[in-house]
Amino acid sequence: MSAHITNLRQQLETAVAANDSAEFGRIYTSFLSQYDTFNAAYAGDTISSETQFDFRDAIFGETHFALNHTTNEEATIILANAKAASEVFGSLPVDDRLDFLNILKQKIDAHADEITLTITADMGKPFDLAKQEMGKGGEWFNFVATHAKNQLENQMTEDGNTLTMHPMGVVQVIGAYNYPYALAISGITAGLVTGNGVVVSAPLKAPNWVHPFMQAANEAVAEFTAKAIAEQKPWADEFKDVAHGLVQNGSGINSVLTNGADVVHFVGSDVVGKKIQDARGRNRTIVEMGGTNVVVVMNSVINSLTNDSKQSVNTPESIAKTIYEGLGPITGQRCTAPRLLCLQEGNAESIVAHLGKFCDDAHPQIGNPFTAGTKIGPLVDAGAYQSMRQAITFAEHCGAVIHGRMDVETERSPQSGNGKAFWVGPVAIDWRDVDMSGENGEHINSLWQHEIFGPLVHILPPVTNLDGAIAVTKRLDHHGLSGAIFTANQHDVDRYTLKAPIVSLTVNGAPKDRSPHGPHGHVGRRAIGGRNALNPYVTESVTAGRVASPAPAA
Question: pLDDT tens digits, residue range 47-98?
Fold first, then answer.
């Protein structure tokens, strides 16, 4: 980490420790002002029109400045520039596109600490966890470097004709606030390697990572263009004229941009995702919208060997710890976080006891996100906070057992008492002994089917066998995004996979995003990652006879 970023991190850490929101905002705004894209979007201290939105940090819950939404006129220009860039960049050999991505990765690596800093400042994710997002980006760059040529170069069909891939044109990537960089980079890398112009739209609740990213992208475009001219590539002059459209950003929300893109790659909430799908109709749209993520634990897993190289033994405590770590340290703000725990009768009591203790003991992990060692930061979304509060209140009314404490002491986080920020501890609600009859039962079942994007897991009444777990999963998880099963029986895995379709199923581990190497998405919809990860960003044509892919210019 550079001395500049180290010093800046310390200044922000001090401002948070002193509960000084004004100083935090001053330091952060000054830092962002070095980026052209921030200055272009900056609209002053407060909103003055409907064309603007406010930036509210999650740590203090305070508004520090306003940003302009992209206008319709600007969106039209962005789309035209991206299309023009795609027409040239998409005609280049795959090797040349990969060369650009390699340069882009180097530039992003050089700005990685700046991106990390903005993620922590925007959404309060502990700095050490935010830094891990950069590793996910590295996975995607490596993935496209390894698989692009096989997926994109001309292929012979069984009848002797040639299948050619063409870029769609313009890809808009709309990321999510919980993993702002990691959930956008998949669409960015896939969109670029397939030859599209890419437009990055950062989430309103974590909009500022895009500024150091765009700095890196602009540097990469400039270096790639200069290199092509120096090497006298035949396409160099033509690309130079349209290069500014290859990677752009849109500020805030603009329907002209989203409706006009050839592909929209969206990660976020059900409500927004469904609105985008409805607005775009049959136009190509990739959506990932979270889920209720059931974790099933079968008795056979107890005392079986783990999957890791240590060959240790699965115990009730180790299983509970795995479930907790998929939920607590990221404040439940992960689309694959465990939401529902379905245990087989027999070992349920011990697992619940250990999980409850992990939740009870979690508060020392909560604290200043800029301080090394902090594992839990604030909750970002007000709706998630309210839903979590309502669920706990209702559970107490029903006589459910509550493990953990939602409220955070002001001594640990002074911002927790200001009424504006949402600082919470992880909670497990044990419903096993609750009367499920009548209206209460209907409400509880409805609650279980609703994703609360926070650190809350429901412990369901136990099941007697795998068929019971399958029935629970099919009844409560309508997304099919991710889940997990703990078992030592391969037959359980095979049967659960067949009967309860889940796109990303983890065996003997917490649910997780398996992309880029595995698919990540919803049953019946286009997924992110996997063996056909690049297909959503291209269109195909078939030409009679053999046609070679364009070779890199000498």
Answer: 888 899 999 999 999 999 999 999 999 999 999 999 999 999 999 999 999 9
- pLDDT band at residue 462, thresholds of 50, 70 and 90? very high
Residue with tokens 């930036």: 55
> Residues 6 or more apart from 535 whose CB is under 8 A from it?
151
- Quick one: which of 477, 514, 527, 528 has its CA closest to 499? 477
Q: 270: which DSSP letter?
A: H
What percentage of the chain's residues is helix, strand, coil (to nearest 5)? 45, 15, 40
Q: Mean pLDDT of all residues in the chain?
A: 93
Residues written for the chain: 554
Residue 553 has pLDDT above 60, yes or no: no
In whole angstroms, give the CA distance from residue 461 to residue 463: 7
**337 torsion bin: left (phi>0), alpha (psi -120 to 50), beta (else):** beta
Give the residue carrying structure tokens 């046609």: 547
Q: For strand 197-201 and strand 170-174, is the pairing parallel, antiparallel, or unpaired?
A: parallel
| Structure tokens belonging to residue 380 | 């970002």
CB 542 within 8 A of CB 157: yes
- Residue 552: per-residue pLDDT: 65
Cβ-count burial of 329 within 10 angstroms (0-12 exposed, 13-18 middle, 19+ buried)?
Answer: buried
C-alpha–C-alpha distance, residues 226 and 444, integer Å: 61
463-520 pLDDT tens trace: 999 999 999 999 999 889 999 999 999 999 999 999 998 999 999 999 999 898 888 8
- Cα 16 from Cα 368, distance rounded (Å): 7
The β-bridge relationship of strands 456-459 and 284-288 is unpaired
Q: What residues does each domain of the chain span?
A: 3-289+530-543, 294-507
The owner of tokens 């136009």 is 283
**Residues β-bridged to residue 485:** 296, 507
Tell me if 292 sits within 8 A of 270, measured CB to CB. Answer: no
CATH class of 3-289+530-543: alpha beta
The whole-angstrom separation of Cα 255 and Cα 285 is 14
Which of these CATH numbers, 3.40.50.300, 2.60.200.30, 3.30.390.10, 3.40.309.10, describes 294-507?
3.40.309.10
Q: What is the 3-state secondary structure (H, E, C) of 184-225?
A: HHHHHHHHHHCCCEEEEECCCCCCCCHHHHHHHHHHHHHHHH
The pLDDT of residue 45: 86
Residue 307 has pLDDT above 90, yes or no: no
Rounded Cα distance, 481 and 2, in Å: 38
pLDDT confidence band for 309 (50 / 70 / 90): low
44 CB-contact burial (10 Å; exposed 0-12 / middle 13-18 / buried 19+) = exposed
pLDDT in tens, 114-130: 999 999 999 999 999 99
